[in-house]
Amino acid sequence: TRPIGHFQDLFSGYYDENIYFHTPPHFLARLTDPALLAALRRLNITLAVGHDDTFCASTRELSTILHNKQIPHHLDIWPGEAHRALHWREMVRRYLAA
After folding, report:
1. Is residue 64 domain-resident?
2. pTM score, two decimals?
3. Which domain holds residue 61?
4. Which tens digits make up the pLDDT trace of 35-73?
């Protein structure tokens, strides 16, 4: 992991396969297994981030990786800084509504 904005490196430089496989931009960029890619292409993936969020650039990076791997997804960029509870409640209503 790495520090981004006011978020510190959560693992103080430690990195192993668990972190690798739980950090989508790391493993997806190198993923070539046809069966795994086919499974990912069947998912309904939505990425939501605020335009001014600390994680906007890394979310756009993930979107680019998904696009390059031909994995369908939707990137929804909210106005302002959406990494807040107020926006999370709206996101739950919007993306998880039955």
Report:
1. yes
2. 0.85
3. 17-96
4. 999 999 999 999 999 999 988 999 999 999 999 999 999
